[in-house]
Amino acid sequence: AAGVIQSPRHLIKEKRETATLKCYPIPRHDTVYWYQQGPGQDPQFLISFYEKMQSDKGSIPDRFSAQQFSDYHSELNMSSLELGDSALYFCASSSRTRTRTSGQNEQFFGPGTRLTVL
Amino acid sequence: DAKTTQPTSMDCAEGRAANLPCNHSTISGNEYVYWYRQIHSQGPQYIIHGLKNNETNEMASLIITEDRKSSTLILPHATLRDTAVYYCIVRVGRLGSQGNLIFGKGTKLSVKP
């Protein structure tokens, strides 16, 4: 079965540079979530989108922005990178339609993008 | 969403049942109990969820106490590949809800040969 695809898998940037992470959800999933996991930390929610509109917002820095496109893929844009932005960035997707019928909110996670800021 | 408390770490012998407890004493009537796990540096993986009845699927069983203040995830025959951090997450699961997951500290389960 198709899974969530994230690209790139690894990214190395210098301080103050910009980075763009991409997420391709499972086909027919309409909701995308972004999570950040620092070294030795638990995943922290950043932001989510449903049908191309922002749905929820967590601890996302103002230097970061994200959007969901008409084909449902999403991009996380990160500017003025700092050393503390080094982390694993996970994208997850789910289907609101499925949740409506079953009450289940199962999120499927991608393999993550490992961002290293030097 | 209700707060959860889990042991920091647990060990389990390969082939034995792994029982992972979770306390959620402030859980509300419309909140579900979800379990996810994260194998080292991989994306978290959904395991199971429940509201008040016990649940079983191909991966695990979920036992929820009658007062819903605690639950136990059971991996019936643990393998080395079950070594992971297990997260118990309590959140509203009303129909149409699409909220984010709030990960706590989780339990690091080590399955040993």
Commentary on this structure:
- The complex is a heterodimer of chains A (118) and B (113).
- Chain A is 6% helix and 48% strand.
- Chain A is built from one helix and eleven strands; from the N terminus they run E-E-E-E-E-E-E-E-E-H-E-E.
- In chain A, strands 2, 4, 5, 6, 9, 10 and 11 form a seven-stranded mixed sheet that branches. A four-stranded antiparallel sheet of chain A has the order 1-3-8-7, with no helix packed on it.
- The termini of chain A are far apart.
- In chain A, 38% of the residues are buried.
- With 113 residues, chain B is an all-beta fold.
- Chain B is built from no helices and nine strands.
- Chain B has a five-stranded mixed sheet, with no helix packed on it. In chain B, strands 2-7-6-5 form a four-stranded antiparallel sheet, with no helix packed on it.
- Chain B starts with 8 loop residues before the first strand and ends with a strand.
- Chains A and B meet through strand 4, strand 5, strand 9, helix 1 and strand 10 of A and strand 3 and strand 4 of B.
Beta-strand percentage range of chain B: over 45%
What is the arithmetic mean of pLDDT of chain B? 91
Cα-to-Cα separation, first versus last residue of chain A:
37 Å
How many β strands of chain A by DSSP? 11
**Count of helical stretches of chain A:** 1
| C-alpha geometry of chain A | globular
Summarize the helix and strand pattern of chain B as letters. EEEEEEEEE
Outline:
Chain A is mainly beta and 118 residues long. Chain A contains one helix and eleven strands.
